Amino acid sequence: MTKMTKFAVTGLAAGIALAAFSTTAHAQEQWTMTTTWPDNLDLIKIDQHWVELVNQLAGDELQINFRAGGTLMPGTEVFDATETGAIQASGDWPGYWAGRSPAFSPLATTTSLFNGVDYLNWIQQWGGFELYQEVYGDYNMVYLPYGITNNESGFMGNTPIESIADLEGKRLRLSGRDQGRVLEMLGGSQVTLAGGEVYQAIERGVIDAGEFSTPGVDYKAGFSEVADYWSTPGWHQSASVFGVMINKDAWDALPEETQETLKIAADATMAWSLSWSERESTDATVKFQEDGVEISTLSAEDLATIQDATNEVILRGACEDPMHAKVYHSMISYMEHYATWRDVTVPFNMSRSIDNLPSLEEIEACM
């Protein structure tokens, strides 16, 4: 090979390498992501955990610039911003969008139905993931569930709630359309407030009691400073799901390998979130007790009454909206199917054992 030929080959190889490097560098996507949670609410840690994993695992293909809730736009506007592509992604709690479709409500939480492991099972193995895609897909989005917290705290305030009879005439802050309907059937009145407003509402007596999230989140929000009483369990949100809304066009622009990386990061964050939340809730319960907050627990009879009201609300909602019916039909089908194994493992089972579920036949009649 002559010197000139060697030079040409070497130059060609260098040019190909430089072009490949330039293409790789140029191919890295840059996303902007925000969330519904401001910095002072601990739920933002779930969003941050996912973003950190994605940036580590997909760093050559994608980097996400994460901004705390309220720094780019009000939390109420993140849905529209993601749908239109003004931003590529946003962390959320699906229940905030129940005004657009009631199907978002059970995708976020259930009243007296799923616990955290139920949501994990259902999302991963019983068709739940596909239903998130169907509901969010109507709004030009892909959805990756990446956070689960188990039972919420319950109601905290300066009026003791030791039975459902004590709910009569009470003004309580809680989120969710279905949750509000159950509360109304029990004699209470739903007050809708942003999470950051609950502390002052309890302190000033605007509400008789309120809830926001798990004990870990509520303690760091300062609830022990303004509440003397705590009513458990948090039947209104027996578990909750959080995730990331991704603009469909931004998602489709990613290579399949990068999409899979985002899904893997979501699964890892989901497992982390459940154990993180349970540890935080345990530590916070100790602190609530040390601060002198008096804890009471509703009786089994009261919880059975709440279950009856829940079933009625589920059936009522199913006949108002076919997608709402489809989601609940899937959830209840899961619980009936899983019971064949779950109930023979007592007391070592991981899911709720319920012998009073809404009627699948009545839901099917509304689909």
TrEMBL record:
Superkingdom, natural source: Bacteria
Instruction: Alphabetically list the UniProt keywords.
Output: Signal
Q: Which residues form the signal peptide?
A: 1-27
The answer, when asked if Metal-binding is one of the entry's keywords, is no
Q: Name one Pfam family in it.
A: DctP
PANTHER family, per this entry?
EXTRACYTOPLASMIC SOLUTE RECEPTOR PROTEIN, PTHR33376
| Annotated protein name in UniProt | TRAP transporter substrate-binding protein DctP
Species this chain originates from: Halomonas llamarensis
